[in-house]
Amino acid sequence: MFSKQKLKSEAGKLRKSIIALWLALFIFFTGINTRGKTFVYFSLRSSNAVKIYELSNGKLLLSDSITVTGGPASMVQHPSKKYLYIAQREAKTISTYRFDRKTGRPSCIQTINAIENPVYLSCDKTGKYLFTAYYAAGKIALYKIEKDGKLNSLPLQVESGFKTPHCILINNSNKFVFVADKDGDKISQYKFDSFWGKLIPGNPFELNTPKGTCPRHLTFSNNGRLVYFVNEVGNSVTLFELGKSGLLKSLQTISTLPDSINVSSKTADIHLTPDNKFLYASNRGHNSIVSYSVNKLTGELKFIETIPTEKNPRSFAVDPSGNYLIAAGESSDHATYYKINKRSGKLTPAETIYLGKQPSWVEIINVN
Questions:
Q1: What is the pTM of this model?
Q2: How many helices (H) and strands (E) does the chain have?
Q3: R_g (Cα) of the chain, nearest Å
Q4: Is the pLDDT of residue 32 over 60?
Q5: Which of 17, 22, 145, 306 has a 20 to 30 A CA-CA distance from 170?
């Protein structure tokens, strides 16, 4: 027989467990962020501005707006979340901003001349280097990041011979770098020496894609074994296996458009959810976001649906909690954000907001 005191103790434990479970379910289904503040940055190329919103309790709340001259476009956060780098395409410059973790407001601390018109920026995993791609010039360049977040004004390395490199990104292990050469219909494969800051061509250096594929952007799986490329003209996503030597092997190509769709369209962006259960890509022309489920063993994709979005969705992002997808329409001047169903991967529109002229990039920073 249990004593009254024992029963009271067990009842108290049960009550605490029920409350904890209720809170966990409430947070899961409402998407409340318990990991600090989440700020969303939109670069507005023709408005010469960057707008900052706070994503709070499922709402995008305008926090600030700053002037960034010269056509701000691609942005990337430093791994430390202390700095934000912004490419100014018309000015052919790159600016470094120090990030205020309380308000989300970035303050410019440096602007350097880029070698050409920068279309894409990305950091290595150590935060010591910035990779840059120059679409029209057919070049890529590597810059040293100093301890104060500023860039060395002279690049460590410049590589040419590309046709239209649209993206440059390093893998999870910080050992391999890939360049999507869109009109070259190829992917360039590099090894990266992070001690000396040097890109070393792989062997083979170039992986040719089928004519008219036009690889544009890419993303890596959490386990580091898989790479997904979105193909601009091919209107498709290709899954590659990343070998231990840093070379890619094609495994699957799947359309970004529904069957029997006859519309002029080109893809733009691609992202996985943080748990890697779902992958999304954007279609410009069809003006939609396509959703796929990801096989947890093979990484292969299965089509879920396409959902209408803003006109010319050049850029979108998934927030670090995996609860929301935020898409910007380069030709609509608006953004729509969606609630992600974590079981099905389907998107439900939450709200559409006006941004300004020519939204070109969405960057999300979560701070604790």
A1: 0.90
A2: 1, 28
A3: 22
A4: no
A5: 306
